[in-house]
Amino acid sequence: MAELIALYPGTFDPITNGHIDIITRAAKLVDRLVVGVAVNIGKGPLFSLEERVALVEAEIRPIADKAGISLDVRPFSSLLISFAREVGAKMIVRGLRAVSDFDYEFQMTGMNYRLDPEIETVFLMASEHHQFISSRFVKDIASFGGDISSFVPKLTCEKTMAKFER
Q1: Cα-flanking dihedrals φ and ψ of residue 141, to 5°?
Q2: Does 166 reside within a domain?
Q3: 135 an active-site residue?
Q4: pLDDT > 70: what percent of the chain?
Q5: Catalytic one among 28, 43, 61, 136?
Q6: In what order do the strands lie in the sheet with 70-76?
Q7: 85, 97, 134, 149: which one is catalytic?
């Protein structure tokens, strides 16, 4: 049977405990998980692409070890479906936090299916204690010196707060 490869894409600016939750759960479902870190300059990232890739790699290393699967982190700047094909993914994993996420994700899934019906999109609901976390809110809180330690992993917390030191 062929290896099942999934792609979990995002900007991860910064990676949150919600992202970690989805990655941990997705790792139980596939043989190999590729975490795609999108360039997405339009969002005006706090961290450079290289910094985001390094942070994601550091934060998910324990997940790969525990799950016993191949967990790769790769940057990408292409169309999502093109990148999924490039890494051999047959599944795109998306996390849903709230109903407000659903409309966007529903449209995106339809477009991706039209582009390549061989690649399925699978949704994982965020765990109840992570449903409200977003990278945008983490950055907003950190910019005012607020405590983000319950929203992001330790290394990410340190690196994020360092970006806002005055």
Answers
A1: -65, -45
A2: no
A3: yes
A4: 98
A5: 43
A6: 70-76, 32-38, 5-10, 91-96, 120-125
A7: 97
Give catalytic status of residue 149 as yes or no.
no
Is 141 within a domain? Answer: no
Q: Which domain holds residue 49?
A: 5-132
Residues β-bridged to residue 124: 95
**For the domain that residue 113 is a member of, what is the CATH number?**
3.40.50.620
Instruction: Report the pLDDT value the prediction gives residue 11, as an integer from 0 to 100.
Output: 94
To the query of whether residue 78 is one of the catalytic residues in this protein, the response is no
127 catalytic per annotation: no
pLDDT tens track for 63-92: 988 888 889 999 999 999 999 999 999 999
The count of domains in the chain is 1
Is residue 63, in this structure, part of any structural domain at all? yes
Q: Indicate yes or no: pTM above 0.70.
A: yes
* Residue 129: per-residue pLDDT: 86
pLDDT of residue 153: 96
